[in-house]
Design goal:
By secondary structure, the protein is an alpha+beta fold. The chain has 13 helices and 15 strands. It has two domains: 224 residues, no CATH class; 124 residues, no CATH class.
Length: 372
């Protein structure tokens, strides 16, 4: 995304920006309060953004409830990430039909109109950039992902508070987005509106048509101070140097300690905005004349994920949890040049038994196994 010299502006109601996007033909996907949580779903014309809500999150606990009635974005992140739109949980790859001399294969391209993600947090932008490395990887690039990503406009929201599960500051992924957005919003003091910053030419085109007043230096300073305060209130942190620590402690007793609590349910991988494990299945009709190939999300926590002839490779819960955590925090860096964790805290909040990845990392870092 190209940088724009446009000055920061002010907007009273973010719904004005949503409506402007919709008028220009963008499908807008944004936060909605549904089933007691914040979800990311298409906003129909006239739909309202959730306002006056806040969340409390802790290990194995999430609650969305009433907050300051004048605040638009006083919640943090819910169980879903934008991954479900860029990397769908179930996707048809191709279909084939029998012909007189064999069969014909037809690739399937899903319908993905130009789409605006509205309300993307800084950690979520970092997660998209991680998945960009995975799915736009030279000869192994996923053309469907690349097409969806190119057609997506990002409207970021900088966090002005942190949940108890957040640790993005220690991962250098938030709470303020510095790049990767087309438009960024920061909510100022209640009743004074939101700061609007432009990060790309197409973002500038959208904002230019709104005739918004300019922000001043005080507004900018307030926005930056609010994000700094959100970073300061974070009580969790990922210990430094975990890539090397985990690689050197594959036989640490903590793996069995966490396995005794882990249910191997895979909830952490489903909620994680960067996990990308998948399976492929072929589905035939009863006539045998038509077949379809589908890609679906999978999890390294399932026993069958490593099934080969003779059985699964990782049969114990300890081995599966170790695979997930060491890949996320260690071998991912060797593969993609970055950590696979962005500090959003979803895996902590949505773990049924409240397993905390930062606590597990700290336990291993504090008592490394001596080398023989």
């Amino acid at each position: 995304m190209s940088a724009s010299p446009a000055p920061a502006l002010l907007i009273d109601d973010p719904a004005v920006l949503v409506e402007a996007l919709q008028r220009q033909g963008w499908r807008v996907i944004g936060p909605q309060a549904r089933d007691g949580a914040i979800t990311y779903d298409p906003l129909t014309p006239g739909a309202t953004l959730p306002k006056g809500l806040t969340d409390t999150q802790e290990g194995g606990h999430y609650r969305l409830g009433a907050g300051d009635p004048g605040r638009w974005f006083d919640y943090v992140v819910g169980p879903q990430s934008w991954k479900k739109h860029l990397f769908p949980s179930r996707q048809k790859l191709w279909e084939a039909s029998r012909t007189d001399d064999g069969f014909a294969v037809t690739p399937v391209q899903d319908d993905y109109p130009k789409t605006a993600f509205f309300g993307v947090r800084a950690c979520e932008i970092a997660a998209m950039e991680v998945q960009d490395r995975v799915f736009d990887n030279g000869d192994f690039a996923d053309p469907g992902y690349g097409r969806r990503r190119a057609a997506t406009l990002i409207v970021a929201v900088n966090c002005t508070r942190a949940a108890a599960t957040c640790f993005c500051a220690s991962m250098q992924t938030g709470p303020r987005a510095k790049a990767g957005f087309d438009i960024a919003l920061t909510e100022l003091a209640t009743g004074t509106g939101l700061l609007v910053e432009v990060g790309s030419d197409r973002g500038a085109e959208i904002v230019d048509g709104l005739d918004l007043p300019r922000a001043n230096a005080a507004h900018r300073a307030e926005a930056e101070a609010a994000s700094a305060a959100a970073a300061a209130m974070q009580t969790r942190a990922m210990p430094p140097g975990m890539a090397g620590v985990l690689a050197a402690n594959l036989d640490h007793p903590q793996w069995q300690v966490v396995a005794d609590a882990c249910l191997s349910c895979g909830n952490c991988t489903m909620a994680c905005p960067t996990c990308f494990c998948s399976d492929v299945e072929d589905v035939n009709d009863l006539s045998g004349d038509h077949t379809e190939r589908w890609r679906t999300w999978d999890s390294c926590f399932t026993v069958d994920f490593t099934y080969v002839h003779g059985g699964a490779v990782r049969r114990s819960t300890a081995s599966r949890y170790r695979q997930w955590m060491t890949h996320k925090l260690s071998s991912w860096e060797a593969q993609f040049g970055t950590s696979g964790c962005v500090g959003c805290g979803r895996c902590i909040a949505w773990c049924p038994v409240g397993i905390d990845i930062t606590a597990e990392a700290a336990a291993i870092a504090a008592s490394p196994v001596p080398k023989e």
